[in-house]
Amino acid sequence: MGSLKIENVKKSFGPVEVLKGIDLDVKDGEFVVFVGPSGCGKSTLLRIIAGLEDASSGDVLIDGQKVTNAPPSKRGIAMVFQTYALYPHLTVRDNMSLGLKQAGTPAAEIDQRIAASSAMLSLEPYLKRRPAELSGGQRQRVAIGRALVREPKLFLFDEPLSNLDAALRVNTRLEIAQLHNRLKSTMIYVTHDQVEAMTLADRIVVLNAGRVEQVGAPMELYNKPANLFVAGFIGSPK
Ligand code: ADP
Ligand code: MG
């Protein structure tokens, strides 16, 4: 299970309203991509779903349960950040297991989950290394592995490929797509890259200045953009 409902979520920082009433329904197992220009509120919305930021008003529901005021650890989510956010002093294995240990997961279960996740992401050779001894692509795979071992209902990705070079971007994108095919988990993925959005999404949510411009399947948006903004954003190559 991993459905998500966002009800009239608004967010202001001081006098500036950066989310102006967002409504969205995501089905269990869906891959939904938020796209929009820099500063339109994508990360803020993702952080509100994760519980890393409070909404000014509105509600977030996961599997029908209101989690608006629940801490991140109680939401069944795991997030992958653009900057990987790994602990530099911990090994890959310890980076992956830390959250599980904190949650009181038994050691044998941790071992089993790390074995399965590192096999899925080809991380076995790196488990004893520290992040500084890895390439950018390997670090991002570790960050994905750390999310994976938590077996979340909902995966949140915030521009996970932005710090990778072009070839690695394609590989890592394919790995994320494969992961979704295998796990059938709900994934919410933020990017400002149209190609990532078009290739990964079941549905794309186009955001602009804190509002949803259009929601639809990639080809639906491509063929029938609701307005010039969507047409320009989805239609124009980079
Ligand atoms: P995106 O991820 O789409 O680039 P963000 O969600 O990061 O956009 O930011 C949306 C707007 O909110 C931006 O104008 C940004 O400067 C502002 N903002 C984000 N976080 C904060 C914060 N903690 N304090 C003040 N303003 C913020
Ligand atoms: Mg952002």
TrEMBL record:
The keyword RNA-binding does not apply. Coiled coil: none annotated. The chain holds residues 1 to 238 of 332 of the full protein. Its main location: membrane. GO terms for molecular function: ABC-type maltose transporter activity; ATP binding; ATP hydrolysis activity. Keywords: ATP-binding, Hydrolase, Nucleotide-binding, Sugar transport, Transport. This is Multiple sugar transport system ATP-binding protein. It is a peripheral membrane protein. Its EC number is 3.6.3.-. It is found in: Cell inner membrane. Residues 4-234 form the ABC transporter domain. It comes from Aminobacter aganoensis. One of its GO terms (cellular component) is maltose transport complex. Belongs to the ABC transporter superfamily.
